[in-house]
Design a protein that fits this description.
Residues 50-118 form the DUF6852 domain. The protein is α+β, with helices and mostly antiparallel strands. Helices cover 37% and strands 23% of the residues. It has a 5-stranded antiparallel β-sheet, with no helix packed on it. A two-stranded antiparallel ribbon has the order 6-7.
């Protein structure tokens, strides 16, 4: 689901990897659909590699997104512009054992903003398909 979806420091929103160029990745913004090169000098993070700290270890971002999706029945999450206390309360609902000392409000804002972007672009449907494929393999 999160394969090929990237966060690039210095740029808001999320990007889908479109292709490789000689010394850059060609990415497309999920916000305005514009394409641009992303160079190795930018800090590029693949969403599939991101995890949230909990008291028991790290939880992959995809699992957090699944929890939000279940809570909201596939709808939008809380706005990333909500107050810090509202964001903390919402995070406690979707990931009750998140590490309050290491997960900052700024991290929560990104998680909820990213979730809402993926939801608007119908990219969360992949979560269910991936889960079904994993269950059939077992």
């Amino acid at each position: 689901m999160l394969k090929g979806i990237l966060a690039i420091s210095g740029h808001s929103g999320l990007f889908k990897m479109v292709s490789n160029a000689k010394n850059a990745l060609i990415v497309e913004s999920l916000v305005d659909k514009k394409r641009m090169p992303a160079y190795a000098t930018s800090k590029i993070s693949a969403l599939e590699d991101i995890a949230i700290f909990t008291d028991e270890g790290d939880v992959p971002l995809a699992d957090v997104f699944k929890n939000i999706k279940e809570k909201e029945n596939g709808g939008k999450a809380i706005s990333h512009k909500a107050s810090g206390n509202e964001l903390k309360g919402y995070m406690a609902e979707v990931l009750p054992n998140y590490d309050e000392d290491r997960v900052y409000v700024s991290d929560m804002k990104k998680v909820f903003q990213w979730y809402n972007l993926l939801q608007e672009n119908n990219l969360l449907e992949e979560l269910d398909k991936e889960e079904e494929a994993e269950n059939t393999e077992e």
